[in-house]
Prior knowledge:
Elements: H1 4-12, H2 30-39, H3 45-57, H4 63-68, H5 71-77, H6 84-102, H7 105-111, H8 114-119, H9 125-135, H10 145-153, H11 161-173, H12 176-183, H13 189-205, H14 208-211
Amino acid sequence: ISNSYELLEFLKKQNLLKEEPSYWWPSSSDFEILIGAILTQNTKWTNVEKSLENLKKLNILNFEAIIEVNSTVLVEAIAPSGFKNQKSQRLKLLAKNILEEFGSFDNFCQSVNREWLLEQKGIGFETADAILCYACHQEFMVVDKYTQKLVSYMGFEFETYEDLQAWCEYGINENLDKIFELYGYEISLNKLYCRFHGKIVEFMKSNRLKAR
Ligand SMILES: Cn1cnc2c(N)nc[n+](C)c21
């Protein structure tokens, strides 16, 4: 495997997403993905699902409710995903800033850029790209520790998050015609990034690599 297109081709053959939603990241609303992207930091996805379940029961998966809800209630609701005090403060602040700056979730998704997100407390490259890609459906690919591990198995080493991201995005963009053949239709670049990252995560979680 010499580029990210060949990696995608290899992963596609494993049918890793057959049980998964078409954009991989599960959600009944894109707003929920914004919250999940913060909650998933430094914890297992199953813990995030528990926190999201709690938030759904409280019916507070919207900006106004996240801002208004009593802090202790929010802290306890997101406790399963860890760092509950820090993450609840950051969720409230982010909801407030987005409402002030963009007025609505839809306008946020159309207008927000990576720089604005990176200025928000508690949002680094991976969280910003997860929000941009999965919640806002903009053309950014998420890379993470799973991606790092998989490409280093293939003999690639990258100094930075953005070098790894560039390698993943470049191979895809350079081979779009072959990818449309592979998928049998002109899949959007955002959906491609969503699924490619999802395949990498599911592949690494399936321990197929360790077994080899
Ligand atoms: C959405 N999402 C984010 N991180 C995930 C993970 N590790 N495993 C599975 N899913 C669905 C995830």
